[in-house]
Design a protein that fits this description.
With 373 residues, the chain is of the alpha/beta class. It contains 13 helices and 14 strands. The chain has a seven-stranded parallel sheet, sandwiched between helices. The protein has a five-stranded parallel sheet with strand order 2-1-3-4-5, sandwiched between helices. It has a two-stranded antiparallel ribbon with strand order 10-11. It starts with a strand and ends with a helix.
Length: 373
């Protein structure tokens, strides 16, 4: 069954462009269009689309307000069309705070000058977030029925007290295992890679880390160059730890998070007793700018066997090769679970590679980090 898409934009020309592109993909079906936020809210509630593409600046009701209103009533992934300007970056981050799962440049030239490439990227992104969004649309009634069925089966075999005792034993075993792991591995750096859905995931994790966090943190988020200054500033304002956009030559310090600049690549280097960052222009032929693989590979060379690396929500498999190198050196890899990921692509890749020690829901990751570090 094709993924149902609602296209929202106040420009009739742009709406027609999007409809034409999406209609060429047999896996996508544009079920309607809307010319402002109010129109979008009404049609979203009535038509129940699998994905909504949303403009930010519109008359009657803007895209950010519309996103909040739609998500108050239903669970649907919303993809924002954004201008790659400083103001556009701030507005897009506001939209993602409101609940949008990802964004894409509104000027197609900012995606690619090749029309076929533009179509491929746009359709692939909508398919991915739409497919995952569908899998999470489970009614509360069906969830309740399933839970009751499971409980009856368990209670038919053992007493409730015994079940609780077994759970407590498992928790104690897990804690002991973590303590043993912490003694065996002295972590020296925390590295996090992510893409689609990453901005909100990073916010949730970093907001829960203490100000005196004992390790430097490296953040690799697939993001355009105009977005990372605004994003790093926002993280710095809302998180206890310090966050900055990384600069070439930065010395790694504990309790400081470094976000790789969009459009560039970053490696961790060592000189004497110091560890520093090398930020450089990216090879135009590379798909990801920044690339999780490039940064993870460099960290594996500098901190063999002493890295806690976490793969969060994102499309594709960037970071898997670098994570393999980290794991081979004795470092620890965790992955965000499928249920809490916007797109379970990057985490799935490391899980399928067999190198992951933990698969965690997003709301548990910060607690686990603090526990082992």
């Amino acid at each position: 069954m094709p993924i149902k898409v609602l296209v929202v934009d106040d420009s009739g020309f742009f709406r027609r462009q999007i409809v034409k592109l999406l209609s060429q993909d047999e896996n996508l079906e544009v079920i309607d269009t809307a010319e402002n936020g109010k129109d979008a809210v009404e049609k979203a509630l009535r038509l129940k689309p699998d994905v909504i593409t949303m403009d930010i600046e519109m008359p009657v009701m803007d895209g950010i307000t519309a996103t909040r209103e739609i998500l108050r009533h239903q669970r649907v992934p919303i993809l924002m069309f954004s201008s790659l300007t400083t103001d556009g970056a701030k507005a897009t981050l506001d939209a993602m705070d409101a609940g949008a799962v990802d964004f894409i440049p509104k000027r197609f030239e900012d995606i690619s000058r090749n029309k076929e490439e533009v179509k491929r990227i746009l359709c692939e992104k909508i398919r991915e977030i739409g497919s995952h969004g569908r899998s999470r649309k489970v009614s509360p009634k069906s969830e309740t029925r399933e839970a009751l069925s499971i409980n009856k089966e368990i209670l038919g075999k053992v007493s409730k007290n015994k079940v609780e005792k077994e759970k407590e034993k498992e928790k104690e075993k897990e804690k002991e295992s973590e303590k043993l792991q912490a003694r065996q591995i002295k972590f020296k750096i925390l590295a996090i890679g992510t893409s689609t859905g990453g901005p909100l995931a990073l916010q949730e994790i970093l907001k829960a880390l203490p100000k005196d966090f004992p390790l430097p943190i490296v953040l690799i988020q697939h993001m355009p160059a105009t977005f990372t200054p605004a994003f790093s500033k926002r993280l710095d304002q809302i998180c206890p730890i310090a966050v900055k956009e990384a600069s070439d030559g930065d010395i790694l310090e504990s309790g400081q998070a470094y976000l790789v600049p969009g459009g560039k690549q970053m490696k961790v280097k060592k000189q004497g007793a110091n560890h520093y960052l090398e930020v450089c222009e990216s090879d135009p032929a590379l798909t990801y700018k920044p690339s999780v693989d490039i940064t993870f590979n460099s960290i594996a060379d500098v901190f063999p066997g002493s890295v806690l690396a976490i793969m969060l929500t994102g499309m594709g498999s960037d970071g898997c090769d670098g994570a393999k190198k980290l794991a081979k050196s004795g470092s620890v890899i965790w992955a965000q679970d499928e249920a809490s990921s916007v797109v379970w692509g990057m985490p799935s890749a490391v899980v399928e590679a067999g190198i992951v020690k933990k698969i965690l829901p997003l709301n548990d990751i910060a607690t686990q980090i603090v526990r082992v570090v």
